[in-house]
From TrEMBL:
Catalytic activity: UDP-N-acetyl-alpha-D-muramoyl-L-alanyl-D-glutamate + meso-2,6-diaminopimelate + ATP = UDP-N-acetyl-alpha-D-muramoyl-L-alanyl-gamma-D-glutamyl-meso-2,6-diaminopimelate + ADP + phosphate + H(+)
Motif (Meso-diaminopimelate recognition motif): 402-405
Segments forming domain Mur ligase C-terminal: 328-457
Pathway assigned in UniProt: Cell wall biogenesis; peptidoglycan biosynthesis
Annotated organism of origin: Belliella baltica (strain DSM 15883 / CIP 108006 / LMG 21964 / BA134)
A Pfam family matched in the record: Mur_ligase_C
SUPFAM superfamilies, sorted: MurD-like peptide ligases, catalytic domain (SSF53623), MurD-like peptide ligases, peptide-binding domain (SSF53244), MurE/MurF N-terminal domain (SSF63418)
Enzyme Commission (EC) number: 6.3.2.13
Name of the featured protein: UDP-N-acetylmuramoyl-L-alanyl-D-glutamate--2,6-diaminopimelate ligase
Gene expressing this chain: murE
Sequence positions that bind meso-2,6-diaminopimelate: R378, D402, N403, P404, R405, G455, E459
Amino acid sequence: MKILKDILYKVSLNSTIGNMDRRISELVFDSRKVVEDSVFVAISGTQVDGHVFIDAALDKGAKVIVCETLPEVLHEEITYVQVVNSARALGIMAANYYENPSEKLKIVAVTGTNGKTTTATLLYQLFIEMGYVVGLLSTVENKISGKVIPSTHTTPDALSMQSLLKEMVDEGCTHCFMEASSHAIVQERTAGIKLTGAVFTNITHDHLDYHGTFDEYIKAKKKLFDELPKDAFALINADDKRAMVMLQNTKATRQSFGLKYPADFKAKILTNALEGLELDINGRQVWFRMIGEFNAYNLLGVLATAVLLGEDEEEILMQLSKVEGAQGRFDKIAIAGITAIVDYAHTPDALENVLKTIQGVRSGGEQVITIVGCGGNRDKTKRPIMAKIATQLSDKVILTSDNPRDEDPMTILKEMEAGINPVDFKKTMIIEDRREAIKTAGIMANKGDIILIAGKGHETYQEIKGVKHLFDDRAVVKELLNLLNQ
Ligand SMILES: CC(=O)N[C@H]1[C@@H](OP(=O)(O)OP(=O)(O)OC[C@H]2O[C@@H](n3ccc(=O)[nH]c3=O)[C@H](O)[C@@H]2O)O[C@H](CO)[C@@H](O)[C@@H]1O[C@H](C)C(=O)N[C@@H](C)C(=O)N[C@H](CCC(=O)O)C(=O)O
Ligand SMILES: Nc1ncnc2c1ncn2[C@@H]1O[C@H](COP(=O)(O)OP(=O)(O)OP(=O)(O)O)[C@@H](O)[C@H]1O
Ligand SMILES: N[C@H](CCC[C@H](N)C(=O)O)C(=O)O
Ligand SMILES: [Mg+2]
């Protein structure tokens, strides 16, 4: 059992009413999870205001209420803690509750529109190769020294995250590499973490549904750097237009990487092929298994991070050349002379990068057939842009369903279609059923052709109206190409 005032250490308080030395059982922010003697933190969310569940939490046995607005009726036996920001309070309290695990680990958070999972996973794989016991928090999976813990978010909620960090400490991890999504930063899921460093990959169009404007989205990413401690490093991709903004108010040591503009860590692409990348780094020529210019950035960001963590550059390059990166990112599946590429590109920039990479490595005569959709209940403004990019950079395009969630799939597809130039209509088809779309691409493809299946990467489900149906692009394309080529 913990003492209330201990877990409130460093939380900005407005007022307190009642016993602060109280012993508490659990810390919860969902009234449905309250047990006897819990602390319930009321957070105002995107769907409901958690303050309306204070009575429900009390009915279930909560003895402490942490909130921004005090309820009208106060109960004598209950402790009320009024805070400036409940979400932030939860982050700090969760860290205290789990004994501040981030102070016992070197944690690096990666933020940016694209490349977070790739960068964090490469760092995890690199540090494992270098002999460390390491943790990973990512969109694809969470890992603690090799053990996989399924991931529900890119960045877990503050409680789950601090609990995972505590487990990392208990398992003897020295480092943790994690993704910091813009949602998580705004929602203060990262508030209680002491970072050793933060990495900015890039910022392009995404999540405008949540942040409202591109400026707000930039501000969300910048907040991570604003809050870094003085002894941390702030590493940016110098070639991104908005990178300098990230460093404007940081107290951390400023560092940069890039292929074009002056930077602390530089590289040059010597070869960019379907087999991998050859880079020149400080006069050393090194081959990597990753494909595409965007992965040159990811690799360079990883190299810079590892150097800033005190590792030897030569050793890093030797081990980094062996690693493969995250699942579902440019996964190549070759069957009967046809190459299928499954990739998680779900933003306009990612789709453009992946298609340009394919255009850059193709031999010329073959067709590039792209299958793409856009997620429901997510940024609608990216839909027409992604469809336009797909048609401009492919020979044939099949628009299909991604995760429609609560939306009508045909409405999403019509919104995508609206972005296509009329001259490109003849190369475009709409096939709502994703399996049928992949099958049709398989039928259209000839030997040598490339099929890009974009948007879902590692995902093993398709989310339709709250139900996750099993669906794995990699398994489906393998099965169908094998069947078609029997
Ligand atoms: C839009 C969004 O980010 N929502 C996240 C947010 O929930 P919310 O603000 O909508 O919560 P809410 O339903 O309004 O509830 C408000 C409060 O009331 C509480 N409540 C609610 C009901 C009840 O009966 N009792 C109760 O106490 C809730 O526990 C909550 O504390 O806080 C929850 C707890 O941390 C998250 O699980 C939830 O993620 C939802 C499921 C989600 O889909 N999030 C996505 C968009 C997301 O976070 N994505 C990013 C990655 C994006 C990227 O690719 O870059 C991620 O980090 O995964
Ligand atoms: N540095 C990069 N710049 C631009 N695009 C990239 C970069 N790295 C990866 N991509 C593209 O973006 C897709 C998603 O990559 P990744 O999963 O690493 O990003 P993420 O930032 O973790 O995404 P999410 O926000 O969904 O967690 C990849 O499949 C690839 O198409
Ligand atoms: N982490 C991203 C993933 C999008 C992946 C795409 N398949 C979709 O469902 O939109 C999000 O939650 O917006
Ligand atoms: Mg990710």
